[in-house]
């Protein structure tokens, strides 16, 4: 599997997102109702990410113990060279849970942020953060 994170935004009443993510070994999917401003805030924070090696951006929807599922995305640098990854934690209303890391490059993050902004503007859309296999990053 190609590592990736996908967020589909649907501006219904209320707005919701569908999150699909996978690493080489794990995959998960969740659907959550959200306030569109929280997705706008994520796009804004990721536009300047990372400002330093200790920079983190966290996006949370729902509670980990909720019977309706949850989504937590923690964008961070995982080494002193500034390589980036997102820690994905998902659960759905069927009590299925997945937690794993997707490494990504800056160009993919820029495209991801742009597609989130476009989805918010148009009222719906799919945003893909294409990951990389861990061994492709040479330090």
How would you describe the shape? globular
Strand order within the widest beta sheet: 3-2-1-8-7-6-5-4
Q: Tell me the total number of β-strands.
A: 8
Provide the helix percentage: 10-25%
How would you concisely characterize the structure shown here?
The chain is an alpha+beta fold and 139 residues long. It is 21% helix and 44% strand.
Describe the structure.
It is a single chain. With about 140 residues, the protein is α+β, with helices and mostly antiparallel strands. It is about 20% helix and about 45% strand. The chain has helices at about 35-45, 105-120, and strands at about 5-10, 15-20, 25-35, 55-60, 70-75, 85-90, 95-105, 125-130. It has an 8-stranded antiparallel beta sheet, sandwiched between helices. Helix 1 (about 35-45) runs antiparallel to helix 2 (about 105-120). The radius of gyration is 14 Å and the shape is globular. The model has no long low-confidence stretch (mean pLDDT about 90).
